[in-house]
């Protein structure tokens, strides 16, 4: 197959969708397919793709009606004989789909790690005509989309993300600079993600206040960059949590940080299938997560940790407290690791993706 994966996300943005794209492209190349990633020049996505030896092409799509993007795609499809395009942003799909319809071009699919459509005529008439199918990573998104009645049951395909166990390192990040030497049995709680409203870190910081007052040996570490950095720092200072809650900034090797943790927390207000939680479970960490899309498909409440409702500081506090005092903490972590490694392997993800794309192409030929 000759594939083009497009993501017009901003140059400095990096998240689960971008990780999936680089991983999927890299693994499909290993299977003998020709794959290019189309993205903005000098973006983090471009850098990570090149580090994984995935060919990168420049595509500039800033709006739903990008003339430049249209002609870039047209040239690329001709040059590389592209048979199928996967777009990660709605505008990527619209521009690609319009180009394809005008030139009898490749199949265009949308890959959605979070819900990007709602049941409105806006999407039915401005998105659906340019899209040949949707790939998502949760049944909850598929069920929501299928309820709109816009397509048959095969239009939305669920392909779970895969855990890249090769990316796990043995090194443990040194957190000793943040933990006073006199603290006995320090317990480390880690959370990762962009410092954005979606990630719910303000609720985690609120929950941390009561916890550290009761358990002075507990320390929270949040790894990530984003627009809310100053606001979150101010909140930490206002609650006098400077010694117990630390913003670590961007971490290229999250694996080493997870190796240093005892508990993982995902306080997000909305997500797709959260890669960060999957990675934490794979590292053997018991977790507290909000009940956002895909989480109930990934972990079992009470067995691998606890699932709480988004935006509820009291529930988040209670669940974290339960893990802190849990004498079977490590057993929960081991169960979680076994579960995600069995259900969410790279081989399963890539095989299911490859089979789905080949099926789409075979139907077009027929």
Automatic annotation (TrEMBL):
<dbReference type="Pfam" id="PF00534">
    <property type="entry name" value="Glycos_transf_1"/>
</dbReference>
<feature type="domain" description="Glycosyltransferase subfamily 4-like N-terminal">
    <location>
        <begin position="14"/>
        <end position="166"/>
    </location>
</feature>
<dbReference type="InterPro" id="IPR001296">
    <property type="entry name" value="Glyco_trans_1"/>
</dbReference>
<feature type="domain" description="Glycosyl transferase family 1">
    <location>
        <begin position="184"/>
        <end position="329"/>
    </location>
</feature>
<protein>
    <submittedName>
        <fullName>Glycosyltransferase</fullName>
    </submittedName>
</protein>
<dbReference type="Pfam" id="PF13439">
    <property type="entry name" value="Glyco_transf_4"/>
</dbReference>
<dbReference type="InterPro" id="IPR028098">
    <property type="entry name" value="Glyco_trans_4-like_N"/>
</dbReference>
